From TrEMBL:
<protein>
    <submittedName>
        <fullName>Phage tail protein</fullName>
    </submittedName>
</protein>
<dbReference type="GO" id="GO:0005198">
    <property type="term" value="F:structural molecule activity"/>
</dbReference>
<dbReference type="Pfam" id="PF06841">
    <property type="entry name" value="Phage_T4_gp19"/>
</dbReference>
<dbReference type="InterPro" id="IPR011747">
    <property type="entry name" value="CHP02241"/>
</dbReference>
<dbReference type="InterPro" id="IPR010667">
    <property type="entry name" value="Phage_T4_Gp19"/>
</dbReference>
Length: 148
């Protein structure tokens, strides 16, 4: 019996991040692409079975965590500083996490909306280590969709 063309899953190491139209490809790690819906118990007043129905409740989205090696590019730090200075109304940005195949073609994309940096964590320094200095930016957002 002949089989169809085999489709291998994409690898998770080739991706880029776009925030507010600014493309960045130098992230070491992106996590937090998560969406859930809490169920709500509901029971009709005249239901004689004495059981509850499960209805969809509010949608919830995890924070997106971005990790990258520190460079002289301060765009993300300045964005976080804007929030720390209380200018949140102008700080909300839409963005995308784009997965690429081995040839660099876009194969999957997750878009998030109304994001702003809720937490920044600086690197750990150790004079006996030789790792890259990594900072972490955590984004809160109001929606996530896979568009590709």
């Amino acid at each position: 019996m002949a089989t169809g063309k085999r489709t291998d899953p994409f690898r998770g190491f080739k991706f880029r991040v776009s925030i507010g139209g600014i493309q960045r490809a130098g992230f070491r790690e992106v996590s937090g692409l998560d969406a859930s819906t809490d169920p709500v118990d509901y029971r009709e007043g005249d239901d004689k079975t004495l059981t509850t129905r499960k209805l969809p409740g509010l949608k919830k989205f995890s924070n997106i965590t971005l990790k990258r090696g520190i460079t002289d590019d301060k765009d993300l730090w300045n964005w976080r500083k804007q929030v720390m200075d209380g200018k949140i109304n102008n700080a909300r940005k839409n963005g995308s996490i784009i997965l690429m195949d081995d040839e660099g073609n876009d194969v999957a994309q997750w878009d998030f909306v109304e994001a702003w940096p809720v937490k920044w964590t600086g690197p750990t320094f150790n004079a006996t280590a030789n790792e890259v200095a990594i900072d972490t930016l955590e984004l809160v957002h109001e929606g996530l969709d896979r568009t590709k």
